[in-house]
Specification:
652 residues, alpha/beta, Rossmann fold, 6-stranded parallel sheet
Amino acid sequence: MANEINKTVPIKPESRMSDPASIEVLKKAERECVETCFSRYDTQKNQCKFGTSGVCCKICHMGPCRITPKSPLGICGANADTIAARNYLREVVSGTAAHSDHGRHLALLLKKVAEGKEKDYKIKDDAALRRYAKYYDIKTENRGSDQVALELADCFIREFSSQEEPLRTLQLAPEKRQKIWKNTKVEPLGIDRMVVESMHRTHMGVDHDYKNILRQAFRTSLADGWGGARIASMVSDILFETPSPIRSSANLGVLQADTVNIIVHGHEPSLSEMLAASVNDPEIVAYAKKAGAKGVTLAGLCCTANEILMRRGIPVAGNFLQQELAIITGAVEMMIVDVQCVMPSLPEVAKHYHTEIVAATDIARTIGATYFDFDEDNAYESAKNLIRKAIDNYSRRDPAKVAIPRYKNPLVAGFSVEAIRYMLGGTFRASFRPLNDAIIQGRIRGVAGIVGCNNVKSTSDVYTNVLAAELIKNNILVLQTGCSAQCSGKAGCLTPETALEFAGKGLREVCETVGMPPMLHMGSCVDNVRILEAASEIVKEGGLGDDIGGLPAVGIAPEWMSEKAVAIGCYFVASGIDVVLGLPFYISGSENVTNYLEQEAREMFGGAFITIEDPIEAAKWVMKTIEDARDKLGINKKTERKLLDMKDRRAI
């Protein structure tokens, strides 16, 4: 009887993943009895309703407490509003800490470079250094790069430690938006202070007013989006170059049967940059050939992939839900992981093959992985030693277990704000003016930012790809980052040719003239701030209002799953942009918290959250929202034809 109860209908790989490479490898995993996140999800399907509705509290050890109609208060007296709001703020805190700690690491690296303490890292983009220094009123004339970099690094580091002054980086937003933050009391102070204060507020017996708690969530998120994450992107540009359009390819088919295959996975660019620099070193190539391989193939997963993709053209093996599948191809000698979005299951999956999992940072160790102490002071040689270690593992590969899908597609990535400005106007007339004019004229109806992760709760990539296709068909320019951008890359949609085949007439004309895709890959998930930077440039250029709020622009997180996504969504809403969620927050147990995030936030900031689980319905909502914004800006009015006499002409 028990066996009958436990029997379940097998879920087909086609219901889990949409791209053919992943489906092929999932079938291989089933044949070889390898457990993946998808099979583990099947054992967790009866997920706790108290957790998903946000009304489970385990902040103190009198509990855990669960709120129900019969038990509306926890032991301490906290109600559903307080509990759901505290849980939500803690998610924002974790997401903010993740991206901002990434920014801190890079700011400290920039300081060491400026002080001459790093021999392998250097300032690669002096123009970016001086451009960003001016943002902070740092003098650049007649000063060496190291002097400017040291002062800028110290300025960035103070953004983390500031105790009483609002973040200076907030000044990069339009003035009207800064006033809104000030008036709504969400101006963040130092990034570290915001994280600590938020954890204090959510400790047992501190802040119980759900509105006060949620206001702090927006405040903390701004310390990320207009603080730590923005700093991370700026320093990456300075040290590793500002991205510009570059061709590459995406999906598991980038792995090669006759080379040593190394995958980098995570989010920190410092090690992956050195691996990309050293992988074609003649000494490394010779070492690989001696081991019987034709060379070394370096590929990326998740946001580390995006970092080296958009600067060096390193191919993308896949996004978040493909990390286990890459190992199951049987062709990966080494997977090097650092921080964020790395599944602890990887060493267990690797036991079925010869792949070595290497953890390369002390704050993110995984049981079963080999720890590698990456030496930033001797970064190039340290990276080469790691590659040699992977080459040594090539002889352990079992040819009978190797099955690399042939699927991969070309893509163009690297659309930083500077690159977009250059593409629109050239070297001497670089400007957002052509984009603003195209929006005002209606050839481009508006802009949609599609960001976020993959989630096993939905068929991977489907929401993102269906939504993006529908939007470009209706002349909406799509900006993408992170795993969402990789969805479109795997589908072959990140090329200029996509505009000719799938974009609406107006968007197609603009893309064809400029030579860009209708979906622009702007970088890793920390580079969501580039989308806000682009929005600020549109405001600065003029003709579309004086604030980010009110632009014909929307943000969408179709398949999000991490706490970082909660923080990202909050700083987009606080910046005045509506955010569509493909999956809901854990707040449904509190009507007041739900109403605050979906209604009251709009009264405060001009943007709010809405959950739409169907991509076509989401596309309809996005298009209506963009058209409403155009109406309010007065750019949907048809210009009346008028015959002018000589007097009228002189007046003009």
